[in-house]
Design a protein that fits this description.
The protein is mostly beta strands. The chain is built from two helices and 20 strands. The structure holds calcium ion (4 copies). One calcium ion binds next to loops.
């Protein structure tokens, strides 16, 4: 006597599945293959993706495809780590023609350095003015931001754009620009010692992140103008004053008026 097999057992996924995928992976990139068993000989198992629970359900399902026969999950849509977060839960179903089984596949989304850093300079920065001969004095505080999801892709700092600058150096881990050397105040020889155009020093900065390769963003150029030191400090008319005050003087009595110029 022959026992006829009928499809009376549900399929089962063989394990819990977890995989990782880089953001921006091109469509068709294989993420993983799910597998299942079925105690019956009869029936053909077919895999499908289910809309996940939660707000971004249909969006998550749209990011992937599954081969209905092989169970291979591939990338189907644009994956952005900055908008999806670090984990996607993809619900997968297997059906043997009569019974269903479901599982949730955990997919870790890996960060790429795909966001450029941004310069954070004070507004109206092109009008910086400093006093001469101030070596290593901080001229301006700066910073950089980066919206990438993880370090070091999001670790941004300011550095000099180009190889080297004669006048300036970036200090404090990329958070400040300082004079590299004492820079004198210059006057023109022609028009009676007025401020020379040479007092305007140009520096171009860039925001750079820690990714490999690093991404750079050039900041708008700054002009730092050197001013003359204030040689005309105020002076009193005399170096000492002697005033007689009557012993009947009360609070508020006018002793004298000092003048400086
Ligand atoms: Ca079955
Ligand atoms: Ca991204
Ligand atoms: Ca990124
Ligand atoms: Ca970045």
């Amino acid at each position: 006597m022959t026992v006829q097999d009928i499809n009376d057992n549900p399929p089962r996924f063989t394990q819990l599945f977890r995989a990782s995928v880089f953001e921006n992976s091109s469509p068709g990139t294989v993420v993983l293959q799910v597998t299942s068993t079925d105690a019956d000989e009869a029936g053909v198992t077919r895999y499908s993706l289910l809309p996940s629970a939660g707000a971004s359900s249909s969006a998550v399902a749209a990011l992937f495809n599954i081969d209905p026969e092989a169970g291979t999950i591939t990338v189907a849509g644009p994956i952005d780590r900055e908008s999806t977060g670090d984990v996607l839960a993809v619900r997968v179903a297997v059906n043997d023609g009569a019974f269903n089984a479901e599982t949730t596949v955990t997919i870790d989304v890996l960060d790429e350095n795909d966001v450029a850093p941004a310069c954070r300079l004070p507004p109206s920065i092109d009008a910086i003015q400093t006093v001469e001969d101030a070596r290593m004095t901080v001229v301006v505080n700066v910073s950089a931001t980066d919206a990438d999801a993880t370090s070091p892709n999001r670790d941004a700092a300011i550095s000099l754009s180009g190889r080297w600058n004669r006048d300036f150096v970036v200090v404090d881990g990329g958070r400040a620009v300082a004079w590299r050397r004492p820079v004198p105040f210059r006057t023109t020889s022609v028009s009676g010692g007025r401020s020379s155009p040479l007092n305007a020093h140009r520096v171009t900065l860039a925001a750079v992140d820690g990714g490999r390769p690093a991404v750079w963003t050039e900041c708008r150029p700054l002009t730092v103008t050197v001013l003359a030191e204030n040689v005309f400090s105020p002076e009193f008319d005399r170096s000492a004053y002697l005033v007689a005050v009557p012993n009947t003087a009360t609070v508020g009595f006018l002793v004298m008026t000092l003048r400086a110029r």
